[in-house]
Amino acid sequence: MKKLKRLLFFLLFVTTYTHAQWEVQLDLQNFTYLDRIFFLDENYGWANGGATIGSASPYFYTTDGGENWYLCDDWMDRMGTDIVFVNPDTGFIAASNGIIRKTVNGGQTWTDIQTPATQDVMRLFFVDENNGWATLNNFTDSSQIVHTIDGGNTWYLQQVFEINTSSILPIYFLNDSIGYGGGGYYDIENGDSYSSIVKTQNKGETWEIIYLSQNTFYSIDDIFFRDTLIGWAVGQKSSINTYLILHTEDGGETWQEQSIAGTLEPSRINCVYFVNDTTGWIGVGEVFLGISNYGAIYFTNDSGENWQLQQEFNMAVLDIQMLNQDTGWAVGCDFIYHTTNGDTIIITGIEEKIDENDLLQITPNPTNGVFTIIYNYHSPEADIYQLTITDITGKTILNSTRRQAPVQIDISSHPAGIYFLTIQFQKNNKFNFFTQKIVKL
């Protein structure tokens, strides 16, 4: 009952945020779920995730930017936790028991390569066709990763921590020398727990700790660095079940926590992706015992000084990859989402910094389906605007061009739920958006 009240409060009072038209590109409900996505370019992409069909872990691929997704015929009885390709022919899947699968024919066939490890392989990262790293699910051994310099044909172990019950999960390399990892370890002798971000400058041969949190265990779920100075790490403050965003501008010497705008704060951030120093996205939501009922994507255009809600989903968003400011993909358990206007932002600072709620009014809201829109921003450029209404999945149910005037809308024929009304207009030769949520009873 408490959860229901909390959700209702959110729906009624948090009404204004960006809406970037993340549309469902593949729906896999009741089949399997996905938690990793990787695109080589605008055409070639792959997605995989947790095994829910017996012990099989199917993955999907596209050769036309997601217009068509295909199920791989070569299912192996091993869970695939990550997938990367270095060219359209050569790719890798992280598997169990220290095995990394490799294809050299675009996924038609796969070869199992046994690394020196016996733990499950968690994450993969390649900087070119020869140099790659993989993290291991370490809970009883000292923390290690595996590294290849010959395109994944042979792998060797590298040491990260020497303390037992250690783990490094997300990994990110800028080039074949400089890389970062996030995780934590437990000092059995002293009973102390640590969360950490580590850095290597010699291909992973040695690592230094650049962030350390002692006895306040944080889950570091993803890391992203733009260069040797600017980076982010995201996850969860596990002890209090709230999100964690860390940002550095000096290569990790110092870190600052960033916060999310809004009333309802997510409990976990799963992924982070930036296309330049200022423009980035994070995916939020939790999966517990294979079940998730909320997710969202947040967006920033000021290096994370302000993170604002971009779109909500009914399942956690677990991975995001953007090719540029407009085009990208995300996976959320049963769904693959796609956007072609991913840098959509709320309008702020228009004229005398008018409050957005004054610019666009919807009454009544909540509504039985019939409501009036009052658009109060008057400008020769903006008097003609595009009005769009979409449902929670991003499907458009109304799209029309309007002029300044109160407009009555009727969506009573559509089911009860959450809808988004977006006003788009052109100012200074740039398209601007602002969006409000509609609750249909």
CA radius of gyration is 23 Å
CATH superfamily of the largest domain: YVTN repeat-like/Quinoprotein amine dehydrogenase
Strand order of the largest sheet: 1-28-27-26
Query: Mean of residue pLDDT?
Result: 80
Helix content bin: under 10%
Q: How does the overall form come out from the CA principal axes?
A: globular
Question: How does this structure look, described?
Answer:
It is a single chain. By secondary structure, the protein is mainly beta. It has two domains: 22-339, YVTN repeat-like/Quinoprotein amine dehydrogenase (Methylamine Dehydrogenase, Chain H); 358-440, Sandwich (Immunoglobulin-like). 4% of the residues lie in helices and 46% in strands. The chain contains two helices and 35 strands. The strands form nine sheets. A four-stranded antiparallel beta sheet has the order 1-28-27-26, with no helix packed on it. A hairpin with a 7-residue loop joins strand 12 (144-148) and strand 13. The two termini are 19 Å apart. The relative contact order is 0.12.
Annotate the secondary structure layout:
Blueprint: H1 2-13, E1 23-27, E2 36-39, E3 45-48, E4 60-62, E5 70-71, E6 82-85, E7 91-94, E8 99-103, E9 111-114, E10 121-126, E11 132-136, E12 144-148, E13 156-159, E14 166-173, E15 179-187, E16 192-200, E17 208-214, E18 218-225, E19 231-237, E20 242-248, E21 256-257, E22 269-274, E23 280-284, E24 295-300, E25 308-313, E26 319-322, E27 328-332, E28 335-339, H2 356-359, E29 360-363, E30 370-375, E31 384-391, E32 396-403, E33 407-410, E34 417-427, E35 430-440
